[in-house]
């Protein structure tokens, strides 16, 4: 039976979800705040609407007769879009507002880990009072990560000893108007992501991915939503062991066991430290860019995952192509602090050559595709090794040109991957 699927969201991540469903027995409809040309090309219908307004999404879902929905962005989850769709009888692969707090409230996330005995929780304290937080910084023996409790698009965290010193940390807290701040032990190591499909009390895991949050090459500059990412042809990454991958999966399993009724993607952001796996955060959705590393190598039909989840069945076992991926985002000049929107995007699927092209926060107008103030598009190389995948991605960027845009060319290059391996080797000694 052909399923009618509604996809919510219009970024690179959602373009990857759309592409994962393109060959499935599904009629795909999509809605997002921006008209993403990649999604619009795959979908039967595309509606521009505010995806944080549940009635607007439900109304479109009902108009198109959706049997199922998939939610990409966290803001829609926080707004209760999954709750509203579920209430309207449209099964939604994405947690309801309460379960999405695992991402949307970092204070809740840490208290939950502590209460449920989920392994890998760093020392933390949550503060409502600015001066009490500043006192804690003065008294704490060591560096802290300063984290607004709510969503900040990945841009709110400041890490002492890396981005700020104690005085700058306190000034940041005093100058901001966040309701609640979580201060937690600074973790040192290499970060990685594992995304799991979760439904009916089960989880199915995908290969580890390493994202690059910092805006500039060499991991300099402000944090971004993610500038690019890579995965290897195995489940783990070159700087970690198979056992370490499985330790991280055990953390995700502990979360699923403790969160009754969670459905959707559970994303674990981990730090591999000298003392093993620690949790940086959980997200309640696919990562962006990480979805673009994972879904292109998924051989299992993603629609089978969605229908099994909906029908209360066991999720299918996942099969992956044993290939490496490298994803590079092109972002507007000045991103993330002072982005310049309005550049015309030159790349298209033909000029991307062997790379996969994913459009992100661009806008399709009558006379072409234009950048907004957020990430513009990503190219993904898929090949036998990280090095070859990187070359495929770079080749696409070179051929298409990136005028008015910026790219971290170092992502996935042998030098940077080796630095990660050396860093872990040094910490383990
Ligand atoms: P988040 O918004 O929680 O993903 O944090 C953004 C980035 O801040 C993470 O990807 C890490 O690089 C960094 N970060 C967050 N928490 C910590 C921590 N406890 N120690 C060190 N770095 C952290
Ligand atoms: N890549 C980071 C995120 O999706 O939150």
Automatic annotation (TrEMBL):
Q: What's a single GO MF annotation on this record?
A: metal ion binding
Domain (ATP-grasp): residue spans on this chain: 110-311
Q: Which family does it belong to?
A: Belongs to the GARS family.
GN (gene name): purD
UniProt cofactor(s): Mg(2+); Mn(2+)
Give the Pfam families listed for this entry: GARS_A (PF01071), GARS_C (PF02843), GARS_N (PF02844)
Q: Which UniProt keywords apply?
A: ATP-binding, Ligase, Magnesium, Manganese, Nucleotide-binding, Purine biosynthesis
**Record's keyword annotation contains Transmembrane:** no
Pathway(s) it belongs to: Purine metabolism; IMP biosynthesis via de novo pathway; N(1)-(5-phospho-D-ribosyl)glycinamide from 5-phospho-alpha-D-ribose 1-diphosphate: step 2/2
Catalyses which reaction?
Answer: 5-phospho-beta-D-ribosylamine + glycine + ATP = N(1)-(5-phospho-beta-D-ribosyl)glycinamide + ADP + phosphate + H(+)
Q: Answer whether the UniProt record assigns the keyword Mitochondrion to this protein.
A: no
HAMAP family recorded for this chain? GARS
Recorded protein name is Phosphoribosylamine--glycine ligase
- What EC number(s) is this enzyme filed under? 6.3.4.13
One annotated GO biological process: 'de novo' IMP biosynthetic process
């Amino acid at each position: 039976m052909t399923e009618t699927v509604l996809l919510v969201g219009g970024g690179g991540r959602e373009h990857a979800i759309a592409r994962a469903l393109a060959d499935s027995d599904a009629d795909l409809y999509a809605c997002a705040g921006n008209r993403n040309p990649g999604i619009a090309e795959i979908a039967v219908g595309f509606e521009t609407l505010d995806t944080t307004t549940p009635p607007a999404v439900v109304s479109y879902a009902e108009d198109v007769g959706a049997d199922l929905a998939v939610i990409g962005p966290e803001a829609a989850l926080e707004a209760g879009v999954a709750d509203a769709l579920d209430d309207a009888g449209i099964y939604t692969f994405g947690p309801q507002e309460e379960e999405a707090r695992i991402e949307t409230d970092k204070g809740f996330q840490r208290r939950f880990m502590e209460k449920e005995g989920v392994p890998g929780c760093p020392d933390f304290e949550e503060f409502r009072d600015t001066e009490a937080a500043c006192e804690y910084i003065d008294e704490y023996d060591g560096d802290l990560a300063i984290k607004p409790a709510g969503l900040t698009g990945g841009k709110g965290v400041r890490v002492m000893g890396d981005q700020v010193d104690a005085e700058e940390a306190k000034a940041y807290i005093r100058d901001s108007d966040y309701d609640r701040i979580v201060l937690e032990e600074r973790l040192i190591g290499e970060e990685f992501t594992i995304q799991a499909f979760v439904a009916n009390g089960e989880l199915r895991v995908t290969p580890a991915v390493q994202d690059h949050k910092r805006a500039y090459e060499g991991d300099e500059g402000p944090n971004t939503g993610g500038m690019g990412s890579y995965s290897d042809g195995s489940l783990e990454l070159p700087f970690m062991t198979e056992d370490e991958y499985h330790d991280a999966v055990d953390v995700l399993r502990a979360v699923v066991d403790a969160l009754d009724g969670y459905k959707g993607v559970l994303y674990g952001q981990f730090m591999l430290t000298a003392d093993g796996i620690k949790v940086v955060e959980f997200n309640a959705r696919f990562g962006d860019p990480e979805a673009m590393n994972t879904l292109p190598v998924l051989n299992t039909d993603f629609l089978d995952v969605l229908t099994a989840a909906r029908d209360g069945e066991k999720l299918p076992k996942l099969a992956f192509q044993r290939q490496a991926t490298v994803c590079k985002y092109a972002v507007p000049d000045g991103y993330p602090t002072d982005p310049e929107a309005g550049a015309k995007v030159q790349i298209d699927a033909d000029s991307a050559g062997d790379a996969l092209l994913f459009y992100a926060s661009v806008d399709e107008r009558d006379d072409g595709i234009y950048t907004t103030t957020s990430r513009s598009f990503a190219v993904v190389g898929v090949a036998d090794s990280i090095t070859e995948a990187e070359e495929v991605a770079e080749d696409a960027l070179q051929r298409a040109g990136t005028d008015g845009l910026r790219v971290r060319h170092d992502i996935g290059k042998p030098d940077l991957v080796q630095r990660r391996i050396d860093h872990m080797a040094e910490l383990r000694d």
